[in-house]
Amino acid sequence: MEERLSARDEDAAEWRDEPRRLGVERMKQRNLLYERGTRSHYENAEYYDQAYRRRRADIDFYAEMASRFGGPVLELGAGTGRVSRAIAEQGVEILGIDSSEPMLERAERRRKKMRRAARELLEFAHGDLLELRLGRKFPLVIAPFNVFMHLYDREEFQRAMDTVRAHLAPGGVFVFDVLVPDLRALLRDPDRLYSAGTVSLPRRGRRYKYKESFNYDPIAQVLVITLYFQSLEDPEEILTQTIAHRQFFPAELEAILHYEGFEILERYGDFEREPLLDFAESQVLVTRLGATPYSRSRTSQ
């Protein structure tokens, strides 16, 4: 027998569905924010190089990995070629993949300025970390400078590891780094702007006040950092960039790699190979493919 809902029942049902509708809408907004946080910071490749020009320790570390394990090397998230160039300069062949056209354009311009012998060992190509399939195998795959922090959920991490797995030669090694979650940053007031001095932006010829805001989602474990640049000459001119970083706690990351079938050969707290301790800034991991991923080896009971 069909029963009709009373107006009161219909109101109650609508009230119960409201959190679900709000949740779906919030998820859509969150995904758009994460998408922007994956690309925004890399649209100005000149500023990117300027901002990280003093960052050298990771370059030296990955160059040493290339010397140790040999080439050709596949770099996932090559950016403007900071690491790739150093590896090619020491005589190791490397292919750098990135999804950002501005970063790749700058990487290629800088490649052309290298000496010929190194330039011929280095190639850049456009590709998506989640979908890349080159049909080639490499003894060393690397993902430097927090590339994997742009993987925001379990499915994306799994797809990225599938990409690594598809390109590793037998006995090959995968080396990558992510930050250790900084609890001070995660607990910062999302409504506050934190001053970080002044900077110059390439091509604009002006100096800007530089501020940052921090907004952490403890359920998704994603920290969204918004960078604000306010012109000292014209305070009405405000530019922004967004970075979204998935936070991986060390024990969590160890477990994920285990269930993806990767063995941790070495794990460091920085690029000088210091141990991973509670005050470490980074997690630097040298891994090798071992068993079949747990999630795909299980059979139905």
Q: Brief overview, please?
A:
36% of the residues lie in helices and 28% in strands.
Instruction: Name the CATH architecture of the largest domain.
Output: 3-Layer(aba) Sandwich
CATH class of the largest domain: Alpha Beta
Count the DSSP helices: 10
* Beta-strand fraction estimate: 25-35%
Structural features, described:
With 301 residues, the chain is α/β, with parallel strands linked by helices. The protein folds into two domains: 55-179 and 249-293, 3-Layer(aba) Sandwich (Rossmann fold); 183-246. It has helices spanning 7-39, 45-51, 57-69, 82-89, 101-111, 116-119, 154-167, 183-186, 250-259, 294-297, and strands at 73-76, 94-98, 122-126, 138-143, 168-179, 194-200, 207-217, 222-231, 238-246, 262-268, 282-289. The strands form two sheets. A seven-stranded mixed sheet has the order 3-2-1-4-5-11-10, sandwiched between helices. It has a four-stranded antiparallel sheet with strand order 6-7-8-9. Helix 3 (57-69) packs across helix 4 (82-89). The longest helix has 33 residues, at 7-39. The chain is globular. The two termini are 39 Å apart. The model is unreliable at 1-5 and 297-301 (pLDDT under 50).
